[in-house]
């Protein structure tokens, strides 16, 4: 039976009654909102300020070049910079823009890798569901040749996990100078997305043999 993706189903837009689902959905949508705003800044040179209040009344914000600067401008409180301050601020903004573009590129590259790996993992799982596999049998039911093949597949799995962990660590270590978040918001997006990589011994073995 073919499973139908939730992305193709109609979802009613109404407030969630389940508190735990509400918090999870808010965290995911908030991170996605900030990410799209960051991409818009990079691609179009837009200046954006976003302030979000969570269901728990915590405040999260995104601002480029900064929330305070844009709010002051919106309220008409922006004063002309004295002397050479304008040139200094211009250089600072350009430097920050370069850092933001580099960060967005790394995030998008990691998301592309994640999508490819996830698609590969789902494909392997579909094959396994259709055909089954002797490697799912108890260890004491395998012969010597099967045990050797299983051990080799586990070595490849270990290498894949180490490589994925290193890639995630690279993204996690990149600073995000333009985001000003609440106390419990992680500064990266990669970690939340890549935690369900879809790899397991059976999938890795099926991919290698």
TrEMBL record:
SMART domains registered for this protein in UniProt: MADS
Organism (species): Capsicum baccatum
GO biological-process terms attached to the record: positive regulation of transcription by RNA polymerase II
Keywords from the named record: DNA-binding, Nucleus, Transcription, Transcription regulation
Record's protein name: MADS-box domain-containing protein
Cellular localisation: Nucleus
GO molecular function, one term: DNA-binding transcription factor activity, RNA polymerase II-specific
Source taxonomy: Eukaryota, Viridiplantae, Streptophyta, Embryophyta, Tracheophyta
Superkingdom, natural source: Eukaryota
Gene Ontology annotations for the cellular component aspect, listed alphabetically: nucleus
Xref: Pfam families: SRF-TF
Chief subcellular location: nucleus
PROSITE patterns listed in its UniProt record: MADS_BOX_2
Domain MADS-box: 6-66
């Amino acid at each position: 039976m073919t499973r139908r993706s939730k992305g193709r189903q109609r979802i009613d837009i109404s407030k969630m009654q389940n508190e735990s689902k509400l918090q999870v959905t808010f965290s995911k949508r908030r991170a996605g909102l900030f990410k799209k705003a960051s991409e818009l800044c990079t691609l179009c040179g837009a200046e954006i300020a976003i302030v979000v209040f969570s269901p728990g009344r915590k405040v999260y914000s995104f601002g480029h070049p900064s929330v305070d600067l844009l709010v002051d401008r919106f309220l008409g409180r922006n004063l002309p910079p004295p002397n050479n301050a304008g040139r200094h601020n211009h250089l600072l903004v350009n430097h920050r823009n370069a850092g933001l573009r580099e960060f967005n590129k790394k995030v998008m590259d990691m998301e592309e890798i994640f999508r490819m790996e996830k698609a590969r993992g789902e494909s392997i799982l579909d094959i396994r569901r259709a055909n089954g596999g002797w490697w799912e049998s108890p260890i004491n039911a395998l012969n010597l040749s099967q045990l050797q093949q299983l051990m080799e597949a586990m070595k490849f799995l270990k290498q894949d996990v180490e490589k994925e962990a290193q890639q995630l660590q690279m993204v996690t270590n990149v600073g995000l100078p333009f985001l000003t978040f609440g106390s419990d918001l992680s500064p990266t997006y990669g970690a939340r997305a890549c935690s369900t990589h879809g790899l397991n011994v059976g999938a890795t073995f099926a991919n290698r043999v």
